[in-house]
Amino acid sequence: MSEEVAATNADVQASEDVQAEEHRIPQPDKITNKDLMKSWFGWWWANEVPHTFDRMLAPAFCFGLIPTLKKLYKDKAELAKAFQRHLLFFNTQATWGGGTLTGVTISLEEARAKALANGEEPISEDMINNTKVGLMGPLAGIGDSIDSGTVQYIFIAIFLPFAQKGNFMGALLPFLCFAIATFTYGYYFTKMGYSLGRAAAKEIMTGGRMAGIIDGLGVLGLYMMGILAGQYIKIQSYLKFTISKKTFDVQDILNTILPGILPLFAVLMLYWYFQKQGLKITRGLIYLTIALVALSIFYII
Amino acid sequence: MHVTLSIWQALLIALWVALVESRILGFSTLTMRFSPLMTGMMVGFIMGDIKQAMIVTAAIQLVYMGFVAPGGALPAEPCIATAIAVPVALLGHMSPQGAIAIAVPVGLLGSYLYQFRFFLNTFALKPMDKYAREGNARGLGFAIMGIPTLISFALFIPLMFIALYFGAPVISGLVANIEHGTLIHVLNSVGGGLAALGIAVIMQVIGKKQLLPFFFLAYFMSVAFAKLDISMTIYAIFGAIFAILYVTFTSKKSTN
């Protein structure tokens, strides 16, 4: 109790300072279970609705965080930065990945918002991005095989005999069971991610090992991007030509030089473009689409 | 065999498909999309023959048993397949097996439609960047949920209505015509290549050039081991070990 009183005194002190100094960032509101439920529900609801090719599920993740971020960042500029960082490429499974990461991200954002308000060294944007990027793949791998691969078909298999006899409960029951089960344990993962993330955030802030951890997460993040690039990007050449009765298959030739060279080339061109021109995502999207359409119309790719 | 539905029946089924394929009912639409059961039930209600609809649907379910979509792409759309095949089977008094023969090609066409939805979203969702920059939560929420929902409805309702009202034979003909056509090829190529953008953005955001070798390491690992079908978890464990090793060795150097 006394700690809380001390904290409120500090808050009062801080708010007086705000009036004294311009541009102090206001204290964030406390995050409650209700906020976690709101964000989990937002992500659960939006999930696949705004799926795009270039950012995958990032908009849905951002949508879930909107109410929480509004409570954490009373400063418009910081709120805008938070919205923007959660619109970057993100793809994971809904409950195991999305639930856990919603909780973890909220805890990191909360630590960052508090540090900003108190004028301390905050958890950096990189740290938040790298944590998400590093964890989204492995959690999705687990979630896909459990939720859509196992849980879903367990319920369908149990109730299919009803359907085969012409009873509509054979459709309704597997749906309801799947919806209730996944919603419930997804919320549990959100809460778990939040408390785990809070413990980790405290450890990071007090341990003075921030730089090392950011580097480590950077390694993991770039490494996971490499794996995803190898698995998600599908660009190959369909070009074939014949010289003196011998047919040359361009993709076969490319494979003997360096397998996977075309997807890598596409990523590196874009990366190089962003290095030179800054992060102009829309332009990158338009150029890439034009190139892909032009090349595929003539079956070059 | 002449197959028709009333305008209202066709419209209601089309609306149901749009609700499922837009995913506006939340994550649970996953099982409505992957499994034909709920769609079969709705078609049964709308057509007033639940019993027969469920029997046909159960047969279609067996075809699509075990369907999972790693990374979101499904090789067929069971919901769309069912929405077409069940009415045709009920009106034409076909066997469940006959319904399956219609469902499979329609499901294939459906998966292209679903991909096309991603394609439209990719461009139409751009206003969300503007709202995010302004810190405008209300605008951002609308851009993320409103725009893609409108797109899905505009895409699925007319197409499904036409398909249902004018009959399945049209669809099977259409599938045969465009399946190997240039349009589908271009769509596949654009869809396959656009993921490069998001990945390049993250590389730029992480922003540490001296860490780039880890990107190349992972990229060539996944290319070289593609045939081994290694799970994401194993790759992630490797990644975590590399990260720990990197941090350990670089911090040792600085203390010495």
From TrEMBL, chain B:
BP terms from Gene Ontology: phosphoenolpyruvate-dependent sugar phosphotransferase system
Transmembrane segments: 32-50, 62-86, 98-120, 140-166, 186-203, 210-226, 232-249
Membrane disposition: Multi-pass membrane protein
Domain of life the protein comes from: Bacteria
Gene Ontology CC entries for this record: plasma membrane
Subcellular locations according to the entry: Cell membrane
Keyword field: Cell membrane, Membrane, Phosphotransferase system, Sugar transport, Transmembrane, Transmembrane helix, Transport
InterPro entries associated with the record: GatZ_KbaZ_carbometab, PTS_IIC_man
Primary residence: membrane
Pfam families hit by this protein: EII-Sor
Alphabetical list of PANTHER family matching this protein: N-ACETYLGALACTOSAMINE PERMEASE II COMPONENT-RELATED, N-ACETYLGALACTOSAMINE PERMEASE IIC COMPONENT 1
Name this polypeptide is given: PTS sugar transporter subunit IIC
Organism the protein comes from: Levilactobacillus hammesii
Source taxonomy: Bacteria, Bacillati, Bacillota, Bacilli, Lactobacillales
